[in-house]
Amino acid sequence: MTRQLRRGELTGISDVRRALRELLRQWGGSPEQAHVAELLTSELTTNALVHTDGGAVVRARLPRGTHAQVGGRLLVEVRDFADGMPRPRRETPDAGTSGRGLLLVEAMAETWGVREHGAGKVIWFELAADAPN
Q1: Can you tell me whether residue 108 is helix, strand or coil?
Q2: What is the mean pLDDT of the chain?
C-alpha cells in the first residue's frame, strides 16, 4: 500500500487508514494490533503533514507470502521532505495533546527508527501479528 499526500492534506489521512485496513485484513494480526497500526500510522502521517512543507508518502507492507494464517511483521514507513531528525518529546504539563506521536510509536511499536532519505527522512515502525502491547 502506498499513498502520497500534499502538505496540510489532513483529509487524506482517512484514505490512508482505509487502505491500511484493507492490507491489515491480509495480515492475521489481532484486532488490537490492527488498531495500534492504524493509530501509529495516523500519528506519523499527521506529523508529516502538519510539521513539514512537502507532504508525505505513506507505505505499508507485509513480508512476501504473508497470509492470515501465517501472520508476520507489518512494516509502515512515513516519508516527509523536511531536514532534521525528530526526537520523541518528553511530556510536560503544558504539552496538551500535541507532540505525542513519536512517544506513542516508541511505546507501542515492536521496533521503529528514522533514516535519512534524499531530501527528507523516513520514520518507520514494525508490529508483529501476535505481539502483546
Answers
A1: helix
A2: 87
How many independent structural domains does the chain possess?
1
Which domain range does residue 121 map to? 2-128
pTM for this structure? 0.86
Q: What average pLDDT score do residues 93-102 get? A: 64
Which of the four pLDDT bands, split at 50, 70 and 90, describes residue 94?
low
CA distance 4 to 55: 8
| End-to-end Cα separation, the chain, in angstroms | 24
Q: What is the domain-level CATH number for residue 103?
A: 3.30.565.10
Cα separation of 40 and 77, whole Å?
10
Nearest to 86 by CA among 120, 126, 36: 120
* Cβ(12)–Cβ(112) below 8 Å: no
Burial class of residue 24, CB neighbours in 10 A (0-12, 13-18, 19+): buried
| Within-domain flag for 22 | yes
For residue 96, being part of any structural domain is answered with yes
